[in-house]
Design goal:
By secondary structure, the chain is of the alpha/beta class. It folds into 2 domains: 309 residues, Aminopeptidase, CATH 3.40.630.10; 44 residues, no CATH class. The strands form 2 sheets. The chain has an 8-stranded mixed beta sheet, sandwiched between helices. Strands 9, 10, 11, 12 and 13 form a 5-stranded antiparallel beta sheet that branches. It binds zinc ion (ZN).
């Protein structure tokens, strides 16, 4: 074990030495922090409005003032299109930008009638920043829903609702609210708000998005922040889980720091490595940094919400204060990035990790004969690269 430790230190030492040399050659002094404050102060003054979150989840889960539940199941193309139309109108009104609709088609055979090709669409709006930081952040989440855990739904999905108030009305409401308060030219980077479809059938929308990203957008992605199901607070303690992989550890840590300083009692738990069960994993697969906010769950991050994927996923179960805290954490993270002076190269504690075989591991105990490697990530102006 001691021998192993010594080897780790040596590797770290060597990598550090290489780092210092390249820093010296690159002449990397922190960039002067010029002209940031006034525009970011404007953003900091704009509050997340809990009533707006409530109104958005009500719209997404019900179709009229009588509270009749709607379906956002992706195979009900006309019903979901009606929701998409409305979301696009609002996105344009909030941001002053153009909402782009990127359609994709897929075959689905698990639901009767079982032999169809369907079309759905991802919705994208861009809020330009001042351009001081290259690349863009993505804030994403799926707007489709499913209720297949309700008995009989699988055979009657054409008539039964799929309100998805928590899953993922809460994520969409968060995204819409951030789009409402982040004014153009306030942040130093662009933000792309993306609403995915067909997540519930296996991340089809986000897979299509990342596969065609260069064609649609093309600009460097700094990182994606996915929000999927953040409203249930069944254990009585407000909080959230954040799914990350090792490469995105810098982002997870930064978000946690913001949350701790803003909401000391908020139970913020990072899972790293974690489940790849939402749209963030499509970004991982494509080699991008991404994290996903979800509601507090068990030791694996799995939700306690009993009405998950049922017709009872309605807004009465949602703790909107918890949703608001997550939305505010993302807003304040952006403000913090905008105010930060990032040296050209840096290594954070989360950028150093052990990998056993092909997999990063959070296990602290190793057996004799394990093959371990120490990985050190070097951050270069927010863009993480393994060197
Ligand atoms: Zn979901």
């Amino acid at each position: 074990m001691l021998k192993f430790l010594l080897r780790c230190l040596l590797v770290l030492f060597l990598v550090s030495t290489a780092m210092v040399t390249s820093t010296a050659l690159g002449g990397s002094q922190p960039k002067p922090n010029v002209g940031i404050d006034s525009s970011i102060k404007r953003l900091a003054a704009r509050e997340i409005d809990e009533d707006s979150l409530v109104a958005m989840v009500r719209f997404l889960s019900t179709k009229n003032s009588f509270g009749e539940l709607r379906s956002r199941f992706v195979l009900r193309e006309d019903d979901l299109k009606e929701v998409a139309d409305s979301l696009c109108v609002r996105l344009e009104r909030y941001t002053g930008g153009t909402a782009h609709r990127f359609p994709f088609t897929f075959e689905e055979k698990r639901f009767s009638p079982n032999d169809s090709t369907y079309t759905s669409e991802n919705l994208v709006v861009r809020v330009p920043g001042t351009g001081r930081i290259d690349g863009l952040f993505i804030v994403s989440g799926h707007y489709d829903a499913i209720a297949h855990r309700t008995p009989g739904w699988q055979d009657d999905w054409q008539h039964m609702p799929a309100p998805g108030a928590d899953d993922n009305g809460t994520g969409v409401a968060t995204i819409m609210e951030l789009a409402r308060i982040i004014e153009p030219n306030t942040l130093p980077f662009d933000v792309l708000f993306v609403l995915f479809s067909a997540e519930e059938l296996g991340r089809l929308g986000s897979e299509d998005f990342v596969a065609n990203y260069d064609l649609y957008i093309g600009e460097d992605i700094i990182a994606d922040i996915t929000v999927d199901m953040i409203g249930y607070n069944g254990k009585g303690e407000r909080g959230c889980a954040l799914f990350s992989d090792y490469e995105s550890g810098w982002l997870a840590d930064w978000l946690e720091e913001i949350s701790i300083s803003e909401f000391p009692g908020f139970d913020f738990e990072i899972f790293k490595p974690s489940l790849g069960n939402s749209d963030h994993a499509s970004f991982w697969d494509a080699g991008y940094n991404a994290v996903c906010f979800v509601e507090p769950g068990d030791e694996f991050g799995i939700t306690y919400y009993p009405y998950y994927h049922t017709v009872q996923d309605t807004m009465g179960w949602i703790d909107f204060s918890q949703v608001k805290m997550v939305a505010q954490t993302i807003r304040d993270f952006f403000i913090s990035v905008g105010n930060d002076t990032i040296p050209d190269y840096s290594i954070l504690s989360s950028d150093i990790f052990l990998q056993r075989g092909d997999y990063p591991t959070s296990r602290k105990v190793f057996a004799e004969g394990d093959t371990l490697s120490l990985k050190v990530m070097v951050r270069n102006n927010l863009m993480c690269r393994l060197r």
